[in-house]
Design goal:
mainly alpha, 9 helices, 0% strand
Length: 292
């Protein structure tokens, strides 16, 4: 099976995307829990040091003695804790065969699981079609996977974990040492400019309103996108993410009666704009902004 054949490459990358999407579901669910455990353990340690005695963990926290990582223990039903068997963990197909319900307790399985798998598979296939059998394809697959994970974690928790954003930033700089998507100089400027733009907006908004308009994770995510794609595509990313964010925010307030004071995560809009910029950013720059 030759991967230099476009159809074969697209098929392989699509199947790979389905499997990676299944793993991303684990990352989306478990990484915030692992982060909370670390924070609580650190807080307990600091409190114990300050008081000179042991401080018990919060009662809502799962026992720290029960290990949890991205690879163990095996995936379980969130309702009955029944381990998911291998044949029940086939991307999309298992969800359809089980009719969206746990085989053990019959409770419904969130449709997000097959959605993430399908989205990852489709985007991986498109990356293969777009870039062919090149190093850019391998790099772009990693970029896509990270943005998908960040999108759904932010939707759930309004957090953009440093465990993903910071490696993504450094990976962008390293990948562009060979001018994969942009020159190294433009990547470095893009990383710095991406962070400083949202950092400036954050402080300006806070000085005017006294409120925090976004989190530091948004700065790091835009810096990572700038490191991957270069400073020239940052205007497209900022405009697209702001436009979509404004439209969705207004729709939530008007149609869903979403309170104006209830925060709306900005990371998903940055991630979506980053993907658009990856695929069509240069065309959008040339067509609408007159930037090469």
């Amino acid at each position: 099976m030759a991967l230099n054949d476009p159809a074969t490459l697209i098929a392989v990358c699509t199947l790979l995307g389905l499997m990676i999407g299944s793993f991303l579901n684990v990352v989306i669910h478990r990484l915030p829990i692992m982060m909370e455990r670390d924070w609580r353990a650190q807080c307990a340690e600091y409190a114990a040091d300050a008081t000179g005695g042991a401080v018990p963990p919060a009662p809502t926290l799962e026992p720290l003695s029960s290990p949890l990582s991205l690879v163990s223990p095996r995936s379980r039903c969130p309702h009955c804790s029944r381990p998911v068997q291998a044949l029940e963990n086939i991307p999309i197909l298992s969800y359809l065969l089980l009719k969206g319900r746990c085989k053990g307790c019959g409770k419904s399985i969130s449709p997000r699981y097959p959605l993430v798998e399908a989205l990852t598979g489709l985007l991986f296939g498109y990356v293969a079609w777009r870039y062919g059998a090149t190093f850019a394809t391998v790099a772009a697959l990693c970029f896509v996977a990270a943005l998908i994970a960040l999108t759904f974690i932010d939707l759930d928790t309004q957090l953009l974990p440093d465990d993903i954003t910071l490696p993504l930033l450094w990976a962008g700089l390293l990948i562009n040492v060979g001018n994969t998507f942009t020159t190294l100089t433009d990547a470095v400027i893009g990383a710095a400019a991406g962070y400083l733009v949202l950092w400036s907006v954050y402080w300006l908004f806070k000085l005017v309103t006294g409120k925090e308009g976004m989190g530091y994770g948004d700065f790091k995510l835009l810096a990572a996108i700038g490191a991957w794609l270069g400073w020239q595509l940052l205007p497209v990313v900022i405009l697209l993410s702001s436009l979509v964010g404004a439209v969705v925010g207004i729709a939530l307030i008007v149609l869903a009666r979403h309170g104006r004071n209830v925060p709306i995560p900005f990371g998903p809009y940055l991630a979506a704009a980053g993907l658009i910029a990856l695929f069509w950013g240069k065309h959008l720059n040339q067509t609408y902004l007159g930037v090469v």
